[in-house]
Amino acid sequence: MNDKLAAFVFRTRGLYMFIALVASMVLKYQSHQTAPPLLFFTGLIIAFGIQGFRMYSASYLWGKQAVTEVGADFLCISGPYAYTRNPLYLGNLLIGLGGCIAINEWYAYLLFALSWVLVYSVVIPYEERFLQEKFGRTYVEYMAQTGRLIPRLRGYKGTAHITPDYTAGVLGEIHVPVFLAILFAVIYMLFVR
Fold first, then answer.
1. Mean pLDDT of the 87-92 span
2. How many domains in the chain?
């Protein structure tokens, strides 16, 4: 894939899943459907619980995850990164699943899945090429011992361990719970009966 296109998708990666969830809400609103409170609250708990995991993961990047260009000052192999190379993207998948559960329509799952696959089938290989060029053999070894998305049971045993900065992790992610609060408030007001 063209690196300019991949860089554009990377810069705008959060937008596509947001559009998918909003489009699902518009479709649901036009069809005058409701959502059961149990599913709404299940989706809410999943989304906010996983956002806590994202903040924890971001603390190992010292809050430098919300960037518009691919870059890395260091190769993070500690905490959740010892088990999966992309805990933040796995978190995005599960947060979106929580949103789909709250919306409670088949097309929400479809639109979100399509947007997520579209974005991360471009972004993850783009980042991996960059990291392999920057960290070489160390990154190749890390890739071989960790899951791309699905965590491996045995963590990577590298030598460069990172001390997490929890404050930076929370502050670097603070926009996401604000967005989620607004999203779930709108879902609740429009659909929960």
1. 96
2. 1
